[in-house]
């Protein structure tokens, strides 16, 4: 196997392991809250299903960007992906709005600090 192929395979395995670990952590919380037990086979099946779903999402996002003749995936592509899940779409829109407000606030504070330092330089 070529070096690049091995590196890619290793990254995929790391992602799968991280996904499984996260699912296992969440399942422990659910087990404690609901007083049920979840078998390792269920966790493995859930992890594999999630991995396949994420691969489908990645392909869809890539195709949305290609269809729009872009090389980068945009926020609009992610919104398009979530269009059939209204709760997820609403959550994404809230996150996007928060980021937009934070960026705007950051720009204003940077502009304000530049103006203040410019005025201080003029006064000196």
Automatic annotation (TrEMBL):
- Classification via Pfam families: CENP-S (PF15630)
Q: Which GO terms describe its biological process?
A: DNA repair; replication fork processing; resolution of meiotic recombination intermediates
Gene3D superfamilies referenced in this protein's UniProt entry, alphabetically: Histone, subunit A
List the GO terms this entry assigns under cellular component, sorted alphabetically. FANCM-MHF complex
Q: Does the keyword DNA damage apply?
A: yes
Family note: Belongs to the TAF9 family. CENP-S/MHF1 subfamily.
Q: What is this protein called?
A: Centromere protein S
Q: Which organism is it from?
A: Elysia crispata
């Amino acid at each position: 196997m070529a070096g690049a192929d091995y590196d890619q395979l290793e990254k995929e395995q790391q992602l799968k392991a991280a996904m499984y670990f996260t699912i296992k952590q969440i399942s422990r919380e659910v087990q404690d809250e609901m007083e049920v037990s979840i078998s390792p086979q269920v966790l493995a099946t859930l992890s594999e299903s999630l991995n396949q779903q994420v691969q489908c999402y990645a392909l869809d996002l890539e195709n949305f960007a290609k269809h729009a003749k872009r090389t980068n995936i945009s926020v609009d592509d992610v919104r398009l992906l979530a269009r059939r899940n209204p709760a997820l779409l609403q959550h994404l829109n809230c996150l996007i709005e928060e980021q937009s407000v934070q960026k705007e606030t950051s720009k204003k504070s940077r502009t304000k600090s530049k103006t203040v330092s410019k005025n201080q330089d003029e006064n000196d």
